[in-house]
Amino acid sequence: MRRTGVHNFPAIDRVIYGKAASEALNEEAERLNAKRVFLLASRTLNTKTDEIEKIRRTLGDKHVATFDGIAQHTTRKQAAEVAHQAKDARADLIVAVGGGSAVDLAKIVIMAMEHDIRDEAGFDPFPMSPGVNYSPFRSPTVRQIAVPSTLNGGEYNAAALVTDERNKLKQIFFHPQMMPVAIILDPSLTLHTPSKLWMGSGTRSMDHGIEALCSPAGTPLADEVVLAGIRILREAMLRTLDYPGDLEARRLAQHGSWLASFGLQARIPMGASHGIGHVLGGTFGVPHYYCTPVIMPSLLRYNKPFTEDAQKRLATVLGAPGIEAADAFAEFTNKLGLPGRLADVGIGEHKFDQISKIAINHRFVQANPRPFKSEADIVDLLRAAA
């Protein structure tokens, strides 16, 4: 039982649900007195649906530009380029409509705008290395709103994952006001999300909850909220697997993601699933929504001696009380049709040494509930997940 600790509350005004995204966004723009709204939109939503056009029509002359060429893994270079476009447009509000990459891009774009960063080297004076517990950024003048189309949950977080392409290294940048000023949940937007992305992103949101639950820095409030979120997510994801057009199930899944990501809102450090996942994505190009199903079962087994009580509670909300949480999670992701081993996502043993050399210095790997004493311990974990 945790007897001491601190619970942080996020710099977010509100989460809006039960309204169409276009209507809710226009109301938020008016509330914030925003006159020049710059959209960062999923290309699929922008070119193959009318969802972004609905938003533009409702915003009317408040809309100044739309950018839809978002890279799967947010990069420093693209952040600087988009920030330059947004400044040229004199944007006073950035809105991300899409998945985790759109949301991360919006977060780092507002910081690049604030500091007039014009290229990838412009981020060098803002180190966010292991052990840095404060933000080197100024508070942004321009804020952002997130309208998620996946279940990732990264929108409930005041940090962004950004890849430095010069050395293929995914980095974390943080400021409390990188948290969206508002989040808008519209399940109808998610009808266009590919099934594998929907399911995989849901496991990523579960990952946020599991790592908060297992963290020594967790709080009683976060524990209860993330457990509820994981339970709701599991039930809703299985419903959308069988009935993809079920808007009520999609609404519940969004609410589950919101709750499961509560540890992010409270700034509870994530663990090695996130840290290793960042290396798999930033250095080896594995989609983030596949990282959790291939790493989490083996990590739960590794962490069990330090997190046994948490894992018992986890197994219960995964619908499998009495069995190992690692097995319950693996069975669930297998039902969803997601990859279950590193080999399934193109990561063979010849890459393990390089992964471990990068991961051992990652702040989340260092925050894992069961410490890794050396790179060899990480290699052993990767072999268990192979």
UniProtKB/TrEMBL annotation:
<feature type="domain" description="Fe-containing alcohol dehydrogenase-like C-terminal">
    <location>
        <begin position="205"/>
        <end position="385"/>
    </location>
</feature>
<dbReference type="InterPro" id="IPR039697">
    <property type="entry name" value="Alcohol_dehydrogenase_Fe"/>
</dbReference>
<keyword id="KW-0560">Oxidoreductase</keyword>
<dbReference type="Pfam" id="PF00465">
    <property type="entry name" value="Fe-ADH"/>
</dbReference>
<dbReference type="InterPro" id="IPR056798">
    <property type="entry name" value="ADH_Fe_C"/>
</dbReference>
<dbReference type="GO" id="GO:0046872">
    <property type="term" value="F:metal ion binding"/>
</dbReference>
<protein>
    <submittedName>
        <fullName>Alcohol dehydrogenase</fullName>
    </submittedName>
</protein>
<dbReference type="GO" id="GO:0004022">
    <property type="term" value="F:alcohol dehydrogenase (NAD+) activity"/>
</dbReference>
<comment type="similarity">
    <text>Belongs to the iron-containing alcohol dehydrogenase family.</text>
</comment>
<dbReference type="Pfam" id="PF25137">
    <property type="entry name" value="ADH_Fe_C"/>
</dbReference>
<dbReference type="InterPro" id="IPR001670">
    <property type="entry name" value="ADH_Fe/GldA"/>
</dbReference>
<feature type="domain" description="Alcohol dehydrogenase iron-type/glycerol dehydrogenase GldA">
    <location>
        <begin position="14"/>
        <end position="187"/>
    </location>
</feature>
